[in-house]
Write a structure and sequence with these properties.
Layout (H helix, E strand, L loop, with lengths): L10 H55 L11
């Protein structure tokens, strides 16, 4: 037979476990928020790229359609 005797939980250990469990829950929530924020940033980045591309296309079109498209005029 083994001489092992189970150790009874001390009140401090119980409090420490509660604290660790709370921290784990907070970390889990934080990771979820970070994931959601990342997804939103990816969507915003795509929209910015689309807007930039559209702005560039509109500028190119307006320059090519201007009467002085063969020469560059100064902007006042």
């Amino acid at each position: 037979m083994s001489n092992f005797t189970p150790i009874t939980r001390c009140p401090g250990c119980s409090e420490l476990k509660k604290y660790v469990d709370q921290q784990a829950e907070l970390i889990s929530q934080l990771m979820k928020i970070i994931g959601q924020t990342h997804e939103k940033l990816v969507v915003l980045d795509k929209r910015v790229q689309e807007i930039s591309s559209l702005e560039h296309m509109l500028y190119t079109y307006s320059v090519s359609e201007s009467p002085n498209s063969s020469t560059h005029s100064e902007i006042d």
